[in-house]
Specification:
137 residues; alpha+beta; Immunoglobulin-like; 1 helix; rod-shaped
Length: 137
């Protein structure tokens, strides 16, 4: 879930035994498990002695590139790791909005350049005609 500048990712595993571990990797870099951005909760299901594990990872968005988030569930007794991945792509609406802004800025810039050029041309013609003693404009 993404809300403004904060993204929240949740990774869960259910009914595992023995209790496993969840690790996070962002942009191919392992994230520290003791980080204040990672909340780790586990619940022991007593009737069948299996574990439900949930980890929530909160990330402040950086707009510099696409992010790849991976959740790795490790069960050392089974020597098996399960991985879930999520790749964020740029928001198409936001990209379209940025393109529209850039188009408006470019259009206004071209208009201003043409206007200034015409004003300078008129002033130059007036100055030249003033020196020559004639009046066209």
């Amino acid at each position: 879930m993404t809300n403004g500048n904060i993204s929240v990712y949740m990774c869960s595993t259910y009914g595992g035994y023995p209790k496993g571990n969840i690790y996070w990797i962002m942009d191919d870099k392992p994230q520290l498990q003791d980080s204040d951005r990672i909340q780790f909760n586990s619940t022991n299901e007593t009737r069948n002695r299996s574990y439900n594990i949930t980890s929530v990872y909160t990330v402040v968005n950086v707009l510099h590139k696409i992010r790849k988030i991976q959740c790795i569930v490790e069960n050392s007794a089974l020597q098996v790791n399960l991985t879930a991945s999520y790749e964020e792509s740029p928001n198409p609406d936001k990209q379209m909005e940025e393109k529209k802004k850039m188009t408006i800025i470019a259009t206004v810039s071209v208009f201003l350049i043409i206007t200034v050029t015409l004003i300078l041309a008129v002033l130059g013609i007036r100055h030249r005609n003033k020196k020559a003693g004639t009046s066209v404009i």
